[in-house]
Structure formats: structure tokens, C-alpha cells
Design goal:
592 residues; alpha+beta; four-stranded mixed sheet; three-stranded antiparallel sheet; 25 helices; globular
């Protein structure tokens, strides 16, 4: 093994060790169930999983991938594997980006990896349960790298060639990986379109549309594209000022999530200020080297655009948290369907990560030159021991203020076990109609899931569509969801309406989750008209009698969405397949 390969193995191994350190408690047997994160032993390709339900398709193709994958392996294991791979890919991708754009030594690469993995954005999104968003976050350094290679290949191979094909295939894979959720697709799409050459924009847009095909198709077919979002969501999901930092300082430190309960304990103390200042100082030390330097034109252009994206990523949510910014966004989501994706503006701070990682890596050389007394602006050779010492210091300064990101964010992320009744209920349900759930609302507090509220696991646990209103309790207010049928069904149950009305609305089953708090209203009057088919300490399942009205998607709609998912899957595999094909051809090509 040569020195270059050994270096890559070390950096990749260190990135894997960091990812495992963060997710440690979650790796025990069990399932991730924390706030928005729901994993189950088995999930199903229901209309909701395919994005064809009443609500906007926010978890497409994520849910369809889990429905397919959980037929082969346990769904909980699949989610944990994707999460660990995402954290590893974020760290290692940042290191590779620093190596290729800055020719950074191994110490500087490890600093870049630390910035990408060990920061408040990762901690807060883990605590909020946004494991699939972190897949989009992880794809960003790879998207930058792929777009850079696309630019460079266009200059060196103007008429086509293997290098150009590989670059485009890598970009396709990065966009598809980010496209596990619509927000991730937007993050990677903005990055790619900002970096490719002007004449490459049409091809890049087409590639982004292909990589985003599942949720674009579902949005068009489900009618969610014409549904405006509740403007109350703008203020509810606005970026939040953390102690001593203000909104802008919180965002610049890669924090500021809207949910004050989804932050590690260290971010509620003076350590939040200390950690943010240290991060910003390290990043600031590297900005001059990233913005200038003696690299080729494409390299320098990409680095400058990445810096610009970081500035926009911080300023956009900061402005969105101001009164006039919130008014502008409220108007946007009210009158422009589909713009509800912008309501959680702090998500877009992820765009700053590649720039922060590059700047931190570049900063390792700056102090090194000063330590050896070099004042010239030309590149100089710094002894590896100096760079390694500075890198070790930077890593310690980045990690220690956020010490509780380790081990499941202070043990908050852990594997849970569902009571056996859930499996028995899943076996009882047939396809006679959709499922309504009591108590009302989408969030639960189970005895087995810990103190934090969790999304109801029923929609992913049961083989038929589970109706959910999409209403979210945030900061003492309720943000309305899209669609009306689930709300009609919930209101009917809470006022004790007749079972025949449930049947007319396409409801064939009612599941009562008996150990979680929530409104039940006069539902006992309705339940008395239904057939009890299963009951234990945790759950009670009722069948709705009579003829159930058929609701849901058509065969044509499902066929189109299935085709879109297949297209996404092929795009995801494009990079590895092209790389494999290139290597096979290079080995079989006769040598001259």
C-alpha cells in the first residue's frame, strides 16, 4: 500500500470511528423512535409511503425505500445503517473535498472531517429525528466534488471521454443520495447548479429532475402541488437564537434549530458561545486561502462559489427570522404552492458545511506558516509535525465544547423495542379500508419510547394507509397540514359520530393507542358501534362494519410513481456502476 492509499484508509477509518462514536447506543438491537424519526421492523408501500396520500410528499422516496428494503432486512437495521453511512459520508466527503481542492495533508483532512461531523447542525437534527435529512447533508461535499470534476472534465475533454462520464455519473449519484428527501434534493440541487458551467446547466437541471423524480411525480399526481401551506408554519419553524449568540450567531455556528428541546445540553450553557467562537475563528483563519490561492481557475471558482453559498445559507434563515422576512415567507407559502419546503429555514444552514470544512482545513497551514516564521505569500513547505499539531489542537477545540454529541447525543438517541401487540395488530389488518387512529394528533408519548414526543409509528407499522391530519404542535401553536379527509375522520371520531360515516369516508379500521396521552373526545360512542378484533394493555383494534367506500390512488398513478422510484434507484447506482465499468475496461484494455 502506497502512502496515498494509506492516508485515505486512515481518514476513512477515522471518519467511520467518529460516526460510530456518535451513534453508539443506537447500534444495540431495537428501533430508532425519537421525535420525527420512526423506524419499524417492517413497513409497506402504502399510498402515503409513495407520496400519494393527502399530505405533501415530504418523506419520498425515503418511505418507499424502507418499504422495499424491509422485505429483505429488518427495517430498524436499515435505518441505522443509512444513518451511520450518512455520518461517515459527511465526514469522509469533507476530507476528500479538502484533499482535492486544497491538496490538504492528512491532518487538515481530519479537521475538515471533524467540522462536517461534529457540529450543532448534526446534533440538533439527530435529536429532532431527521436522519434522512442528514443523508442529504452528507451528499453536499460529494456534490461539490462531482460538480468540480464536471467543470474540469469539460475543459480537458471537450468532446467527451471516460473522465467526463465518470464525473457526471458521480454527480447523478450525489443528487440521488441527497434526494432521499425533498429538502435534501433542494440542498444538493442548489449546490450543483451554482457550480457547473453555464452551458452545463440544462444537463444538470435534467439530472436533478431525474434524481428527484419520486417526489416530483408524487407531488404532481397527489394534488399537493396546488395545496398552499399554513402560513403559521413560518413563525413556528423560524430559526431560534441560542443563549448568548442571537439568531445570526446561532446560525453562523451551525445551530439555531426551531425546537429548543432538540438541542444537546451543552448548547444551553456558555459552551454554546465558546464553541461557536472557536468554530468561527478557525473558519475565518482559512477564508483567505480558500478564496484566493494559486490553484487552477476551475478550482478557485468552485471554492469561491462554495464560500458564497455558505454566506447565503446563514443569511437566508437569519433574514427569515426577522418580522419582515417572516411576512415575505408567509406570503410565499400562502400563494405559491410547494414553497412549504422553505418554512424550516434553518435546514438550509447545511449548505455552509462544505465551505466551513474547506476553511478549517486551510487554516491548519496558516498557523503552521506563522509558527515557522514564514511571511511570504507563496506556497511553502511546512513540516508535517507542525500541521499535525495544529490539526490536533483544532480537532480538540471543535469537539470539546460539544462533548455531548458523543454516544447518541448524550444517550438521548437509543434503540427502543415495540410491544408485541403492534405486530399482532399488523397481522389483523387487511385491505378493507384505511385506518384511523386515536387519540387525536400525530405525536405520541409511549412508556417504551422515552420522555420526548414521537411521531405515531402506526403509518409505518401497519400495511394499510393510516390517516393523519398533518397538524403539528409547535411553540404553543398548531400548524395545519394539507388535505381534509384525515381531519374530517378525526373530528368525526372525537364528536362520537356514526360508524356509517366512517365507512363513507373510506375508513375500515380504528386503532386506539391506549397508553399515550391525547384527545379522545366522545369517541367511545363511535367505538361502541364497531367490532373489537384485538385488545391488550397498549392497543385496541376495531373493524368498521358495513360497506367501506374505496379511496386511494389509481393503478395508473401507482405505476407512474413506481417508475419514478425505479428511475431514482438507477440514478443512485449510476456512479458506482460507471466506476466499476471504467475499472473493468481499464483492466481488459490491451496494453501497448
Amino acid at each position: 500500500m502506497n502512502a496515498s492509499s494509506r492516508e485515505r484508509v486512515i481518514v476513512a477509518g477515522a471518519s467511520a470511528a467518529g460516526a460510530l462514536l456518535v451513534t453508539g447506543p443506537l447500534l444495540r438491537p431495537g428501533y430508532l423512535l425519537l421525535r420525527d424519526a420512526v423506524s419499524t421492523p417492517r413497513s409497506y408501500p402504502t399510498d402515503s409511503a409513495l407520496g400519494l396520500g393527502d399530505a405533501a410528499p415530504r418523506a419520498v422516496p425515503q418511505d418507499a425505500l424502507l418499504a422495499l428494503g424491509s422485505t429483505i432486512v429488518d427495517g430498524g437495521l436499515l435505518v441505522k445503517t443509512i444513518l451511520v453511512l450518512a455520518l461517515w459520508a459527511a465526514a469522509y466527503g469533507a476530507a476528500v473535498l479538502a484533499r482535492e481542492l486544497l491538496r490538504a495533508p492528512i491532518g487538515a483532512q481530519l479537521v475538515a472531517a471533524t467540522v462536517a461531523l461534529w457540529n450543532p447542525y448534526v446534533a440538533e437534527r439527530l435529536l429532532q429525528g431527521h436522519w434522512s435529512l442528514l443523508a442529504g447533508y452528507a451528499a453536499l461535499p460529494w456534490t461539490v466534488l462531482a460538480a468540480y470534476r464536471v467543470r474540469s472534465a469539460a475543459a480537458t475533454e471537450p468532446s467527451g471521454g471516460g473522465r467526463k462520464l465518470s464525473a457526471w455519473a458521480m454527480l447523478a449519484t450525489a443528487l440521488a443520495a441527497a434526494g432521499l428527501t425533498p429538502t435534501g434534493a433542494l440542498l444538493a440541487g442548489c449546490t450543483a447548479l451554482a457550480l457547473v458551467r453555464l452551458r452545463q446547466l440544462p444537463a444538470a437541471v435534467a439530472l436533478w429532475c431525474i434524481a428527484s423524480a419520486p417526489w416530483l411525480a408524487a407531488t404532481a399526481l397527489s394534488g399537493a402541488a396546488v395545496e398552499p401551506s399554513d402560513p403559521a408554519g413560518i413563525a413556528a419553524f423560524a430559526a431560534r437564537a441560542e443563549p448568548g449568540l442571537g439568531t445570526l450567531g446561532s446560525l453562523a455556528g451551525l445551530g439555531g434549530i426551531w425546537n429548543a428541546a432538540a438541542v444537546p445540553d451543552s448548547r444551553t450553557t456558555l459552551l454554546a458561545v465558546v464553541g461557536t467562537l472557536l468554530l468561527l475563528v478557525i473558519v475565518a483563519l482559512g477564508i483567505p486561502a480558500v478564496a484566493s490561492g494559486t490553484a487552477a481557475t476551475d478550482n478557485r471558482h468552485v471554492r469561491r462559489i462554495v464560500l458564497l453559498l455558505a454566506a447565503v445559507a446563514i443569511l437566508f434563515p437569519a433574514l427569515g427570522a426577522t418580522p419582515w422576512g417572516m411576512h415575505a415567507l408567509e406570503w410565499l407559502v400562502t400563494w405559491v404552492p410547494g414553497t412549504g419546503l422553505l418554512r424550516d429555514t434553518q435546514k438550509y444552514v447545511a449548505l455552509a458545511m462544505p465551505a466551513y470544512a474547506l476553511c478549517a482545513a486551510a487554516a491548519c497551514a496558516g498557523p503552521g506558516r506563522r509558527l515557522v516564521g514564514v511571511t511570504t505569500r507563496h506556497p511553502v513547505s511546512v513540516h508535517p509535525a507542525v500541521t499535525s499539531t495544529v490539526a490536533a489542537l483544532f480537532i480538540a477545540l471543535l469537539v470539546l465544547p460539544l462533548y455531548d454529541l458523543a454516544w447518541g447525543v448524550g444517550g438521548t438517541m437509543r434503540a427502543v423495542h415495540y410491544p408485541s401487540g403492534w405486530q399482532r395488530v399488523a397481522e389483523q389488518v387487511d385491505d378493507s379500508g384505511d385506518i384511523a387512529v386515536l387519540p387525536g394528533g400525530m405525536f405520541r408519548k409511549f412508556r417504551f419510547s422515552g420522555p420526548a414526543p414521537v411521531l405515531d409509528p402506526a403509518p409505518r407499522m401497519l400495511p394499510d394507509d393510516v390517516l393523519q391530519t398533518g397538524e403539528l404542535p409547535v411553540r404553543g401553536h398548531t400548524v395545519a397540514g394539507e388535505g381534509t379527509r384525515a381531519r374530517e375522520v378525526e373530528n368525526l371520531l372525537l364528536r362520537g359520530g356514526p360508524a356509517t360515516d366512517l365507512a363513507d369516508l373510506g375508513v375500515g379500521w380504528v386503532l386506539v393507542e391506549r397508553t399515550t396521552p391525547g384527545p379522545l373526545g366522545d369517541s367511545a360512542q363511535t367505538l361502541a358501534q364497531l367490532e373489537l378484533t384485538y385488545r391488550d394493555t397498549d392497543l385496541a383494534l376495531y373493524r368498521v362494519p358495513g360497506d367501506i367506500a374505496q379511496r386511494g390512488s389509481t393503478t395508473a398513478q401507482r405505476s407512474i410513481v413506481y417508475a419514478a422510484h425505479l428511475l431514482w434507484g438507477a440514478t443512485l447506482l449510476a456512479g458506482p456502476l460507471v466506476l466499476l465499468g471504467t475499472r473493468v475496461l481499464s483492466r481488459t484494455r490491451p496494453r501497448r
